[in-house]
């Protein structure tokens, strides 16, 4: 990355602080002044050494020692005070920066199409937001502050070196020049790319570790070992190899850097002895002692510059993560929003592909559906055919590539998100319940719902038996003190939420998928409650659940291949009729095996 881009990036980062960015600048000024202040006591030390050597061995005659001590103390104190004020400024700005960055990202996430969350896990997003803001906060609060000090110190050091003793100054400058030469490649574009690669290997390994931990029950059940998790093992190996290769590639410059940074003495002491052999005097001795005390500080500062450059790379990588989220296109709100005239749904010539899909065939191909208000239709067909994708396009999880979807004769893209969401309830196969009370989990369906309304919705969703068994009834918090609900039970709670919402359009995606026979019966009862006088789109593999709907669309390979009611489709002897036969055979097989 060029210096210009880096500069822009730094300014972009700083801009998240808003007006607090001036505090960062003030903090940096304080840091520079503090670094200078903290160097002044060394001059007083030199004065003390000088004053003592002049009168040696009669040290009692040394003059001005008290005033030197007071001066050293004053500047040391001033340096510490400036340091404190500077850190206060950079911290205030960094905290503001972290808060603003989190706010911007979270607000932006709220405006993204729901489909974005299908492809980005909540854990992954949380990690990006938390990791990135923590890294940039640390950089602005500490590293930037240290960087100014680390730059000012060697500059003042150089000035002092030459003002005390030109020859010793020149000797001390050799390792500094070498340090910079060895440090230079570590600031290069390649080095930044390597750091980004390192982070991505690390992230891959972390996410595979999470998958592995999630999959431990399956591993144990099938008596497998960690080695059966190929992806995890590969991620560890790739990370290990990359880290080892990277470490080995930096072996030479790093060693050279460390040697030269610690090489001040190696040069200074023999040079001092050599020079002393010819022109030893009190002043030279005082200078020499000063250099011996002072040079290690410079070494520490050079080391700091080195680590700060790495911290900037991490902060810059973290900013990339945040900007990747912020650059995601939000759901476009209509300029002139319209209200749907009724609750019918129409797909007209819809084509759709997922962004990351690389198949030659479209995911959805020329889909045309017509669902009258208050009709119930079912989408059935082989797995992967595109049923869920069709249903997801109605609430604009994604926008269509071609064609249109209309609700009540209005294109969904012309309906405000608020209206669209108010008109649609959806219940997915993987229901998400919050780790909260059943009451709160249902209440989320309708703002300001009364307790009676919530109880009524739970009752209509056939949840009475679930609640009766819970220690605190509807106030029981799910997932605590052993209160866990089965998949089918969770589905019924989710249906209660949808009943409470009472939206005129209902989308049910495999709502009975996780249910045992008893739960399935209860869920069917809840579904008949929720779907009364509603426009309903149902996706189901169990064909018995969709037999009585007004119309069935059979979806295969992204196309609607058949449509009609159950009896006409069975008579047609097409794909549906085959699926129906298979479904009946599977039921008979189940009954037989249960009898045996
Ligand atoms: N978020 C996504 N990103 C990329 N591709 C996806 C995504 N979701 C689904 N697909 C792909 O789109 C195609 C249709 O999937 P979809 O889930 O709509 O089918 P389905 O008929 O509902 O399947 P099932 O009955 O198994 O749920 C599949 O090839 C699937 O791999």
Automatic annotation (TrEMBL):
<dbReference type="Pfam" id="PF00664">
    <property type="entry name" value="ABC_membrane"/>
</dbReference>
<dbReference type="InterPro" id="IPR011527">
    <property type="entry name" value="ABC1_TM_dom"/>
</dbReference>
<feature type="transmembrane region" description="Helical">
    <location>
        <begin position="256"/>
        <end position="278"/>
    </location>
</feature>
<dbReference type="Pfam" id="PF00005">
    <property type="entry name" value="ABC_tran"/>
</dbReference>
<dbReference type="InterPro" id="IPR003593">
    <property type="entry name" value="AAA+_ATPase"/>
</dbReference>
<dbReference type="InterPro" id="IPR027417">
    <property type="entry name" value="P-loop_NTPase"/>
</dbReference>
<feature type="transmembrane region" description="Helical">
    <location>
        <begin position="284"/>
        <end position="303"/>
    </location>
</feature>
<feature type="transmembrane region" description="Helical">
    <location>
        <begin position="67"/>
        <end position="92"/>
    </location>
</feature>
<feature type="transmembrane region" description="Helical">
    <location>
        <begin position="144"/>
        <end position="162"/>
    </location>
</feature>
<keyword id="KW-0547">Nucleotide-binding</keyword>
<feature type="domain" description="ABC transporter">
    <location>
        <begin position="345"/>
        <end position="582"/>
    </location>
</feature>
<dbReference type="GO" id="GO:0016887">
    <property type="term" value="F:ATP hydrolysis activity"/>
</dbReference>
<feature type="transmembrane region" description="Helical">
    <location>
        <begin position="168"/>
        <end position="187"/>
    </location>
</feature>
<dbReference type="InterPro" id="IPR003439">
    <property type="entry name" value="ABC_transporter-like_ATP-bd"/>
</dbReference>
<dbReference type="GO" id="GO:0016020">
    <property type="term" value="C:membrane"/>
</dbReference>
<protein>
    <submittedName>
        <fullName>ATP-binding cassette subfamily B protein</fullName>
    </submittedName>
</protein>
<dbReference type="GO" id="GO:0005524">
    <property type="term" value="F:ATP binding"/>
</dbReference>
<feature type="transmembrane region" description="Helical">
    <location>
        <begin position="20"/>
        <end position="47"/>
    </location>
</feature>
<dbReference type="InterPro" id="IPR017871">
    <property type="entry name" value="ABC_transporter-like_CS"/>
</dbReference>
<keyword id="KW-0472">Membrane</keyword>
<feature type="domain" description="ABC transmembrane type-1">
    <location>
        <begin position="25"/>
        <end position="294"/>
    </location>
</feature>
<keyword id="KW-0067">ATP-binding</keyword>
<dbReference type="InterPro" id="IPR036640">
    <property type="entry name" value="ABC1_TM_sf"/>
</dbReference>
<keyword id="KW-0812">Transmembrane</keyword>
<keyword id="KW-1133">Transmembrane helix</keyword>
<dbReference type="GO" id="GO:0015421">
    <property type="term" value="F:ABC-type oligopeptide transporter activity"/>
</dbReference>
<dbReference type="InterPro" id="IPR039421">
    <property type="entry name" value="Type_1_exporter"/>
</dbReference>
């Amino acid at each position: 990355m060029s210096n210009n881009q880096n500069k822009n990036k730094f300014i972009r980062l700083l801009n998240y602080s808003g007006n607090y960015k001036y505090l960062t600048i003030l903090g940096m000024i304080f840091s520079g002044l503090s670094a200078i202040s903290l160097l002044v006591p060394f001059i007083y030390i030199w004065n003390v050494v000088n004053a003592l050597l002049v009168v040696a061995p009669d040290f009692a005659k040394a003059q001005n020692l008290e005033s030197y001590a007071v001066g050293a103390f004053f500047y040391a104190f001033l340096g510490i005070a400036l340091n404190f004020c500077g850190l206060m400024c950079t911290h205030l700005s960094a905290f503001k920066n972290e808060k603003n960055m989190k706010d911007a990202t979270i607000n932006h996430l709220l405006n993204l199409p729901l489909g974005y969350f299908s492809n980005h896990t909540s854990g992954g997003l949380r990690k990006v937001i938390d990791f990135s803001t923590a890294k940039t906060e640390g950089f602005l609060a500490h590293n930037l502050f240290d960087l100014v000090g680390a730059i000012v110190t060697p500059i003042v050091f150089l000035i002092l070196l030459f003002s005390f003793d030109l020859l010793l100054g020149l000797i001390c400058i050799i390792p500094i020049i070498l340090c910079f030469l060895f440090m230079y490649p570590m600031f290069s574009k390649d080095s930044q790319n390597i750091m980004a690669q390192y982070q991505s290997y690390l992230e891959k390994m972390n996410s595979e570790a999470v998958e592995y931990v999630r999959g431990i029950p399956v591993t144990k059940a099938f008596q497998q070992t960690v080695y059966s998790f190929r992806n995890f093992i590969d991620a560890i190996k790739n990370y290990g190899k990359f880290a080892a290769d990277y470490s080995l590639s930096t072996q030479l410059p790093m060693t050279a850097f460390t040697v030269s940074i610690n090489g001040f003495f190696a040069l200074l002491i023999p040079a001092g002895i050599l020079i002393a052999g010819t022109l030893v005097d009190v002043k030279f001795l005082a200078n020499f002692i000063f250099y011996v005390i002072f040079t290690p500080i410079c070494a520490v500062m050079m080391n700091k510059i080195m680590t700060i450059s790495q911290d900037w790379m991490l902060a810059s990588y973290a900013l990339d993560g945040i900007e990747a989220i912020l650059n995601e296109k939000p759901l476009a709100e209509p300029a002139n929003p319209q209200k749907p005239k009724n609750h019918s749904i129409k797909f007209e010539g819809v084509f759709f592909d997922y962004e990351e899909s690389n198949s030659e065939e479209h995911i959805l191909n020329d889909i045309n559906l017509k669902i009258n208000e208050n009709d119930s239709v079912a989408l059935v067909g082989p797995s992967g055919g595109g049923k869920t994708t069709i249903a997801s396009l109605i609430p604009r999880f994604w926008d269509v590539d071609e064609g249109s979807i209309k609700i009540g004769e209005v294109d969904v893209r012309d309906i405000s998100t608020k209206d669209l969401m108010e008109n649609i309830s959806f219940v997915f196969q993987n229901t998400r319940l919050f780790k909260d009370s059943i009451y709160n989990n249902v209440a989320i369906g309708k703002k300001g719902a009364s307790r009676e309304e919530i109880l009524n919705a739970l009752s209509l969703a056939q949840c009475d038996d679930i609640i009766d068994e819970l220690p605190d009834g509807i106030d029981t918090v799910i997932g605590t003190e052993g209160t866990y609900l089965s998949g089918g039970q969770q589905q019924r709670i989710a249906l209660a939420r949808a009943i409470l919402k009472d939206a005129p359009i209902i989308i049910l995606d495999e709502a009975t998928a996780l249910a045992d026979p008893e739960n399935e019966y209860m869920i069917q009862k809840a579904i008949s409650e929720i779907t009364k006088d509603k426009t309903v789109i149902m996706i189901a593999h169990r064909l018995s659940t969709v037999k009585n709907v007004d119309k069935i669309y059979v979806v295969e390979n992204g196309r609607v291949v058949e449509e009609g009611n159950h009896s006409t489709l069975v008579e047609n002897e097409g794909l549906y009729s085959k699926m129906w036969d298979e479904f009946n055979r599977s039921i008979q097989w189940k009954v037989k095996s249960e009898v045996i």
